[in-house]
Known about the structure:
homotetramer, 5-stranded antiparallel beta sheet
Amino acid sequence: MSSEFGRLLRISVFGQSHGRAIGVVVDGLPAGEEIDLEELQRFLDRRRPGNSPLSTARRETDVPEFLSGLEGGRTCGAPLCAVIRNADQRSRDYGELADRPRPGHADYAAWVKWKGFADMRGGGHFSGRLTAPLCVAGGIARQILARRGIFVGAHLDSVGGVSDRPFPLWPTAELFEEIAAKPFPVLDDRAGERMREAILAAKEDLDSVGGVIECAAVGLPAGLGEPMFEGVENRLAAALFGIPAVKGVEFGEGFRAAGLRGSENNDPFTVEDGRVRTESNRAGGVLGGITTGMPITMRAAVKPTPSIGKPQKTVSLSAMENAELAIRGRHDPCVAHRAVPVVEAVAAAVLLDMLLEGNHGTF
Amino acid sequence: MSSEFGRLLRISVFGQSHGRAIGVVVDGLPAGEEIDLEELQRFLDRRRPGNSPLSTARRETDVPEFLSGLEGGRTCGAPLCAVIRNADQRSRDYGELADRPRPGHADYAAWVKWKGFADMRGGGHFSGRLTAPLCVAGGIARQILARRGIFVGAHLDSVGGVSDRPFPLWPTAELFEEIAAKPFPVLDDRAGERMREAILAAKEDLDSVGGVIECAAVGLPAGLGEPMFEGVENRLAAALFGIPAVKGVEFGEGFRAAGLRGSENNDPFTVEDGRVRTESNRAGGVLGGITTGMPITMRAAVKPTPSIGKPQKTVSLSAMENAELAIRGRHDPCVAHRAVPVVEAVAAAVLLDMLLEGNHGTF
Amino acid sequence: MSSEFGRLLRISVFGQSHGRAIGVVVDGLPAGEEIDLEELQRFLDRRRPGNSPLSTARRETDVPEFLSGLEGGRTCGAPLCAVIRNADQRSRDYGELADRPRPGHADYAAWVKWKGFADMRGGGHFSGRLTAPLCVAGGIARQILARRGIFVGAHLDSVGGVSDRPFPLWPTAELFEEIAAKPFPVLDDRAGERMREAILAAKEDLDSVGGVIECAAVGLPAGLGEPMFEGVENRLAAALFGIPAVKGVEFGEGFRAAGLRGSENNDPFTVEDGRVRTESNRAGGVLGGITTGMPITMRAAVKPTPSIGKPQKTVSLSAMENAELAIRGRHDPCVAHRAVPVVEAVAAAVLLDMLLEGNHGTF
Amino acid sequence: MSSEFGRLLRISVFGQSHGRAIGVVVDGLPAGEEIDLEELQRFLDRRRPGNSPLSTARRETDVPEFLSGLEGGRTCGAPLCAVIRNADQRSRDYGELADRPRPGHADYAAWVKWKGFADMRGGGHFSGRLTAPLCVAGGIARQILARRGIFVGAHLDSVGGVSDRPFPLWPTAELFEEIAAKPFPVLDDRAGERMREAILAAKEDLDSVGGVIECAAVGLPAGLGEPMFEGVENRLAAALFGIPAVKGVEFGEGFRAAGLRGSENNDPFTVEDGRVRTESNRAGGVLGGITTGMPITMRAAVKPTPSIGKPQKTVSLSAMENAELAIRGRHDPCVAHRAVPVVEAVAAAVLLDMLLEGNHGTF
């Protein structure tokens, strides 16, 4: 098994980039939850390659068909299956790619693992396209959470060396919606403008750029998560690394905390309106793997798209000799901005799963 | 459940810092493996607080007793249980700590989760002391891997703003042993000297520092790991976040990759001695969640020890009002150097677990 | 989560009886396995309600569409998703059933669990119809096992008080095929004839009958399975109880063993052609949860179909008062004979999963 | 992994019959639960071999030491570890047994699995002795359940062809206590007397007998359990087959249901005091894998003790030729009566685990 995560809420993603369909089974959704399909579609559209020059030219409408689990607009307790048919698969020859693994892609690893039987057309099951069904699952989780006052949002923290402002100490649902409504998901639009320029400059150079995504979740109760290996951080990280191209995950100050002193990094406790808060949130809302009631904050590093037009060194697997490769065709000069809702989706799914477990710290 | 990880190899850690004993059950070890208990003890000693001023003054011999699973010096297939008795628990009053949660510690989160029933003496189950049994499990895994030519090693990448050299492209078992034999686990001893100075300076200021640990694993076959959510990165990250104080995990270039261009980050494939290699290893040996056969490299960010002597703001949970706290007694001005073998232990355990699954990519 | 089983091979079933489609995701299949779709269809047809008076009149062609995981007739390593569209859902009113739970059905339990939001039309997700995708998964597993000389077969052990002969000590692939080719899956056709009479007699009486299914697996190596809770019996039983209407599972002599003496129940070891065998197989090929190399034998008890035409006592959930119910429409007077391939499917899936793990007893 | 079960409540059993100690880690217990250690000891004593001629002469006090998780008589949220030192291991030679596998025992399967490295002295990790730590875990679960009005009890349903009365439709906590207080756990003491005679007769003949255990759980809410593979039956069965010597598990009428007609087996619903009940309980309190609110009833078949004094046929593994074996020393002529509290323990642990998950059918 591989393409699944979750404990009480199991999310199982299937499909290959150029196969018949991609989709997801979500098992364990609570029953009776109304799903707003228009809102879900808007969420899906945030990751869809648009008409923008920032994205691949592949055209997909990405409208899911619900085969089960959703009746009369409500979840019914049975596993939900959503399917998205693949429309725009170009039938060009993948022969070369099959023999010449693309640097930075899973091609070679998959070729070894599956002894040449992998369907690697368009990246196969490793394609970023698989994040569409992930967004179906996460978009549903997000709606269920929002109904309970729990909101998950994200923005581009940096792209190509340009940085956005960080989230404020207490991000709000309104802020999340505001970012989601923007064509480019940043807090500071001028930073966004420079990020876009960096992406287009890379594109011009037949190259690509990566980025960092900051995600936050507000409204969670304190006491969620288990010590050591089933904490909030463990489970979020395990799932976030499932998003193609993510190579790093950190919570709160993360790697920056390693350079601070304890007196700089510890968040002082304080009482506000009769509730325990911390004055800062360098812990990212998690201590000992357990939520403190402060917003959860995390950052995911997205590597630059490995598919680039520039000629690259590779090997011919059949001849076992060095070779060259110039990837033609459609590809994103950056996927980090499209990955913003994907990070939200994965975070929402993990957090709903943890909430469904309830706080069995006491009985 | 919480304090367990692994699939075929399950590692379950138990104990509280000031309880009777701490320990670990390792279920799923292959039978017939000779365990060198002296070598294991040397491994455990690397994380033990020593006579050094860099560490806590708590004295523990940390010699495990094996209750099961090990007969005549060999694993016998049955679950292995190792227990370490707690010796040096000071019987001083923890009353203040119970009411005044230490900033940066799990005290408050645990208090909410377990409604005041948690045993938080010395950090309880959240204590760094729990990494001793983790090292028993990982130290055993490390020996089993080494016998198959797979070696796991780590060093301090940075502490308090001072950086060590990174691992070379192909770290060796000899290099790992060399670092392990040093009193301070770095490649560049002059950098190590400055790190120690940074730790002592923080100590002088009744403060603490954090650090980053780089870990590498060599000798693994290509094709290990599953796509999406059961990849090498997902599983290593999920386990590494189980080490107290870890707030970030990255593979290969990690967060730095987000600032590179594709042409800079992609590792060119090449044929060397009839085998496919990459000329660089910015992917950290993992593409699409699956090993490439290159060394796996990862880095874990360790936050500064939250226990510091400086007065800090906190709250009184009984009075629900602001309060002050000055932590007295023994504590480490830095735990990052002691966490180096812990990261090795966790990585070794995860990798052995994955190897036991075999490569069922084909049958 | 609920509708999933397996460890390295995960089988996730979705759909409701009267929803758009039913289906299955099989994650973890080895790559490169050729799947004979005609053979698979023949396997599926064994559980399909036929033209026979022994079965429901519902007509379904039950031809799966493969959305992923199968390319060019071979598994490709990525999760396989198969979907079967529901065709013959009668649009009659289920209002009465929603309010009056059918005795022996999941209606009431599901109503409590999902607070009235469950889709219980035709039994919803609890319907025996969900065994069709289970047979897709198991039918594929069966082909993969057969290629390695491992064969799984089953027959009706008893129905309505009439018993078939048991399997011989060493059932063969040929015997399994012979039974599979029969219109009624028994060893002794005269017993089968009397079983059919019992089913028709029950039907005449607007009633139903149950049955017992015996299943065997041959060709498995010794040493498969783990002690205590991850043994062959634990895992087979956990999955077999997932087949609707199964209320008992036993291995070897099972409940009969409880009435024997040790000297009668122990299987004497003997050497045959240089291999260790047992002269009898009352243990059903499993000792201590681990395979002995003898055939695995198990029996599953299938209760009589709860849907019967006879008037029954029930309650009105809206009025909270006693009520009567006479179930009209199509239903099977017996499902035990149709469940024979389902038991094979589940057993094959579990055993393939265990084989994929390999024997990590030693490394 | 092998010797663990549970989802939110993980129970991990370790130890070998003649090793240093046996024990259990229970991870996920709710915090703040008072554990009555005297009551727990009485529970453990029910499975202990007594002075009775019905049991082995092995003497063990079986008093657990709690290394963690229990502070001041209460659970503290951290994993609980309990250890029982092995006292009465006779140091006689096991050489013969190592070479001549005992019929009906795991010896041969373990020898194959672990290539001769298994510690099979006294059955090693497969010994019935491992049920002592299982009873520690289950005895604690039983106390936690009882505090919430949920009671688990069992009795010997039959031994050596002699049957006890079945449980009444609504067994009570008082009835469970009454049986537990008896020297021989039956409802009908005259049946018990004849069972004892059957055991002694078998002993006289250097032989052994098996038995069936009926277990019931009362007080559970309706709506517990998940459809298909995570139902109450699946999970109870998977755990019950972990008890050494169990070869069959059934719920409600179980195998007998297979011989009934639908009209005989369906339990009519009725309203009693404003609550939905069934007039009979042939379903054993479970429909579609989900509790109905009626008592859960199950039966486990225990095979006759394989260790018998009568000479038996076996093989010499070193010589690969037929051989004879007469097992000397202490062994139980029947283990079914001692397994009664073990079945209670396992059932209680599974049910507490399911209750901790809560009913997340709706949110």
